[in-house]
Amino acid sequence: MTTITRKILMALSGFFLLFFLLQHFSINFLSVASPQAFNEVSQFMGTNPLVQYVLQPVLIFGIIFHFVMAFVLELQNSAARPVKYFSKSNTGGTAVSKNMLISGVTILLFLALHMYDFWWHEMSVKYINGDLSGLNEQGGFRYHEELVAKFQNIVRVVIYIAAFTFLGLHTNHGFQSSFQSVGINHPKYTPVIKSIGFLYSVFIPVGFSLIAIYHYLFN
Fold first, then answer.
1. Which architecture, in CATH terms, is 3-82+96-218?
2. What is the model's pLDDT at position 48?
């Protein structure tokens, strides 16, 4: 597999993950706008065979593939440099672009926490305990109350906000570079792509952060 092919595949996996983040945010926003709707959508997503046995594995593969390609490309770039950079301040590019791997690792660690908080719990309840009902002991759906309970810990809220900040920095640069990787780089369209990437990289992290803050303050 050539370096160009790896870059294109990583860009395509990045686009897929950006779409997933938007979809994930829209569902989480329901926890603020309508707890009942959030519960119903969560139950549907958590028991739908297409989501559980097709889309979920594809998502997990996409995350792993994206980060593996990032590490491989970083190793290739490092090996291709004849000498180590003396100073990062004079190598060109922004601080974010020079530290995409660091922000990526930070996001990966956050994903591990997030999956422990929510995904592993769901897998345990549904497929180890065999409870697909989605109900709590009182007979109502449990998803909203479980989400709220996670965000009653200020330390967890701060960790989430910090992680979303790194996510915003990562996606802001990654959005534009993904288009360049697939050959889209034009004086007329690149500024528009940059603007869309900036808006996305602000909207998604701020939106997720506000959801966490809302549940900490008002629930």
1. Up-down Bundle (1.20)
2. 95
